[in-house]
Amino acid sequence: MALHTRLTRLLGIEHPIIQGGMAWTATAELAAAVSNAGAIGIIGAGHMPTDLLREQIRLAKTLTDKPFGVNLMLLTPHIDDIVQMVLDEHVPMVTTGAGNPGKYMASLKTAGIKVLPITPSVALAQRMESIGADAIIGEGMEAGGHIGELTTMVLVPQLVDAVEIPVVAAGGIADGRGVAAAFALGAEGVQLGTRFISATECTVHPAVKERVLKAKDRDTVVTGRSTGHPVRVLKNKLARQIMELDRENRPEEIEELGTGKLALAMRQGDVDMGSLMAGQSAAMVCKIEPAADIVHELVHDAEAIMRSLHEKATGE
Ligand code: TUI
Asked: What is the pLDDT of residues 197-238, one digit of tens each?
């Protein structure tokens, strides 16, 4: 049982599955569990203070001997300090989100760190390839958190045509069918965030897991479009307040209202006034189970689908 691609070789992993680097959600425990299962776990830096992130990285190193990564959230004000710390800690790989990591590419590459920028567009992906990115993560607007405009279905094949480096599909993938579909589009790996919120090892507040498990098809909404940083969340009281401010075009008040609300949801479990960032695939997440079971199910089911499609295509 294995899906080997350029991505598995690049990262030295068994399965071409990246766990999304969700801020205040993807902690060392989850990342290590995913890496131990043969995929690659990511610690979400978000707006985390540098010292706390360093502790998380050191904790992950005690929990796994396998490669893991850190997601650098480029909008955070102390991003320069975070990058320096990640260099000092010799983290094997980073993904980047919410901006252009060009400024940091040379130093990360020189330190031997694999860099996988998350991009919502073809132009940014080409720029990233030209400055040395190892692979591209194409994230569609089905994803949770900060999103671009294109869907995974249209973004991924365009990226595959536009760059030579491996493309990883993200956004809307929650099971083996999604993995097989991503491979059909030309992706050589997948990134899943929301599905891993339900992992036993995910340390997010139990009330958040419960909301994800209960979510149905139309339970996410995109808020904050007026700020220029649209964010997909599960609908709740905070989301409704932000949608109202969006309608009234009051972006400054949205920024103010949103401050600290992700940690409020994910760590403290305030599922009414916290920001419940999650993707559309929340509706497809149905049970709490170990990260290793999630990884193995994804690989097993994707392989079975690809085998059955092959049989159909060849008339066997
Ligand atoms: O980064 C994410 N997801 C995130 S970041 C985040 S924290 C946040 N909170 C409130 C507002 C904004 C951020 C929560 N979820 N996913 C990867 C991702 N990157 N999605 C979209 C992008 C992106 C957008 C623009 C990447 C690059 C980019 O480039 C703009 C430029 O400068 O060229």
From this structure: 999 999 999 999 999 999 999 999 999 999 999 999 999 999
Distance 7 CA to ligand 1 centre (A): 22
Residue 316 token pair: 């066997």
Residue 155's Cβ-count burial label (10 Å; 0-12, 13-18, 19+) is buried
Any bridge partners for residue 198, and if so which?
A: none
Domains of the chain: 14-203 (3.20.20.70)
Write out residues with Cβ below 6 Å of ligand 1. Answer: 23, 46, 73, 75, 97-100, 118-120, 124, 139, 145-148, 229, 231, 277
Cα(97) to centroid(ligand 1), Å: 5
- For the CA of 71, the closest atom of ligand 1 is 1
73: phi then psi, degrees, rounded to nearest 5: -95, 105
CA–CA separation, 206 and 203 (whole Å): 8
Collapsed DSSP state (helix, strand, coil) of residue 191: strand
- What is the per-residue pLDDT for 316? 76
Q: Using 50, 70 and 90 to split pLDDT, how confident is the model at 1?
A: low
